[in-house]
Amino acid sequence: MSVNDTAHTDNFAWNRQVYHRLKLALSLSLRRQLYLAVCDDLHLRNQVAARLHSTLAYPVGQVLYQPSNTQEISTPAYPRLVTLRLNLSDPNPIDQINQWLTNYPPPVVGASKDTPGRPLPVPAFQIVGVEQLTKQPVAVQRSFLHHLRLSEQYLSSQESGQFLESSLLLWISRPWLSAIQQSAPQFWHWRTGVFAFAGEPTPATHNSGYPERFSTSRSLDLGNLEPSILEESVTQAELRAAAGELKFGDGDDFDFHTETPVRRGRKPQDISPAKLELLKTGVQPQESLTRSSSDYTPSLQSLSHINPELTELVLTTINTKIPQEEEDGIQPQQMLLEIEELHSQQASGEILGAAYHQLGNSYRLRIEQGQSNLENLMVAIIAYQESITYDENSPQLPDILNDLGTLYWMLYRTPPNSEEGQTYIEQGIEFYKLALKLISPQTHTDTYARVQNNLGTAYGDLAKFSNPSDNWQQAVFAYNEALHHRTAEMEPLKYAACQNNLGTAYWHLAQYNQPVVHLKKAIASYNLALAYYSADQEPLKYGMIQNNIGTAYWNLAQYEQPAENLQLAIDVYNEALKYRTPANVPTACAATQNNLGTAYWHLANLFQTNKDTQHKYLQLCIIAYEEALALAHSLSGTALSFDLLATHNNLGLAYYQIATDNYFSADKTTRSQHLEAALDNHLQALNGLSKQSEAYQTTFTYIVKTIRAFHSELGIQGQNLALSKVPSQLLAEILPKL
Length: 738
Prior knowledge:
By secondary structure, this protein is mainly alpha-helical. It has helices spanning 11-27, 42-56, 93-103, 138-150, 152-156, 174-183, 185-189, 236-241, 273-281, 293-300, 308-316, 324-327, 332-344, 349-368, 374-390, 397-413, 421-437, 445-462, 468-485, 492-510, 515-530, 539-556, 562-577, 586-604, 611-634, 644-660, 668-687, 694-725, 728-734; strands at 34-38, 81-85, 108-109, 118-119, 124-128, 168-172, 193-196.
């Protein structure tokens, strides 16, 4: 397909594929590559450019370079990918790149008395803003094409300077692609790859050109996965009810680091100690509070010293609701203008770091108040990373690194997150590890415990993507480290939350090795957590932990003392349901009812020789399953943490067992009712399954078996009744099997 074609039957799937190819090409860090990214949709272009920057500018493990024999940071982070906006007054991409490298040469690492050291690799560059040339005079447009024609010498000459070592990603629209092909054929000839994104062109009258806002946001709480018999994921209701502690540090004053390294060899700006103190504390002079949001937009679009993706992301958030504290103080767009002014005045790294830190804090406040959308998270991340770039010796560095870990974890939990989820979690883990290297557990006990707890949670999420046994083992180690330094006497609720996290990690670890050992440790941890939660004051958390204990006992029953452990599971599930009510947390209540039904089912089948006891447990199993299904169906459209179709099948099997056991002397009407209920539930399950799945074939077998039972229990009239309930499209497949 031609790069000028825009029609695709599935734009999302196409663009995802193109994005992954582009990301892979850039991540290889090859020298002297020329990539052209073609995109007419400015919203999409800015989203993709921002994602590339967030994942490639500072790869995992490259944020801080630390010497092996000290905990001090001696070398600032240096980006692997730099984003530049085309200078419309002199549209020469090559000159902009060389100017950036002149201002920020790669730092030398590994130098010693005996060795001279080596410079870090020259970054790749992505340039945005070419589409704005359309609004410029024809002479400016021709100048751009002229500079591209001249750039052949930089691409072919062995003596062309630093750009020879760099790679370039140039973002262009399809009209500019055609213009380059026709008017700068030499530049076009040197291309390494063309990545064409599908999408409708942004109208020329559109003023913003910034990423779309995502309406969905997630809270700051970390949900502790509740192990459940048929449960693989956690719902938002469970997240809100969970006792997790993945959150920002307790301090209100801290800094951070990304795009542009510290300028070297320049005299610090002469700013008074009073002004510096204001910057450090986040307070700004009152004369800067007089402009409205709309007044800033033209000025922000022309900033030259600040990462353009940061500028665009801030502009995206201008019209969103902001916290009251921010309304009463300085606005983010004004902060950007002041940062630009500081850059122009060649301010010291300490002052620039404080200014970027203040910007990060303003977005941190938004996130803490529930506005955890993609744009707010990205602004906070970039601002904090810029802050550390300029002021890398901040005494608050461990807290900042913890917060960066949390922000990256939140990116994983913020839609759309499926593409980069593992990368974001791994980046978060690296930040937590860096923080722990700088923290003394003896002198900063609370911070050390907090970061270890967060690290454990991140490893638990990473286990969903790869090496689950190893990652859950790492989570167990981190939680135990946290508990070693966080005692119940110091902080009872945080201690209890961490014990619950540890119990969940042990439960997951039990699914891979030493199940009995790890399940018993899980139960012990859950019980320790339960001791510090009051059922009256914390009913949802109390009920959640009871549910977790029940599931651990159910799991343990598969390995030893089944009757005793199943009864213990049933007891704690019933205790949990006192607090997980349909009115308070309907999805959690449904999940626990489903767990209770499964426990009764297994207990019933332990009493094959005691039919009265078996019948009693089967009846209780049916009641629990029907409660779970009734609640689930009343919550249409709400995500559930258990498999609804599997519950229908389980309920069908319970009804079938009662109907076909000759010990139960029920009349034909009752048997017919039980078999009809069994068939109805199996048909509901089948209706929701893919015909190619193994579950579909299993459910189909249940249906055939139930129809045969109609015939054996109720004769040909019963079989006809059963067949009348079966959808017509299934009859041709069922009849030969009868």
